[in-house]
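Every protein is a chain of amino acids, and every chain bends into a shape of its own. Below is the pair of lines this work produces for a single protein:
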Amino acid sequence: MSIFLSILLAVQMIAAVAMIGLILVQHGKGADMGAAFGSGGSGSLFGASGSANFLSRTTAVLATVFFVCTLALAYFGSVRPAASSGSVLENAAVTAPAPMAVAPVVAASGAAQIPSK
């Protein structure tokens, strides 16, 4: 189970880093306005609108992978062993060490409790 969680965590981290990179590469809405009025920067590897579609779809897929990994890690992180009763306090009471024996304290008379100079 530990190997599965490690793989799931690695996939989540790779998806997060790739998603950050793709978001930083994408153009904003204002960049498309210059391409609409004949700017020469619109011709790229993917074409005028192909890069936006490819990058946005890839970002959506990576976001889905990230959220699925997050939900799976949250689920497997909250699964408890069958031997556990479910209560944190009950588990602490079972595993707590026994208190040490303390000698009984004899109550003194009222005169003995008054401090002297």
In short: DSSP finds four helices and no strands in the chain. The longest helix spans residues 50-78. The mean pLDDT is 76. The two ends are 69 Å apart (CA to CA).
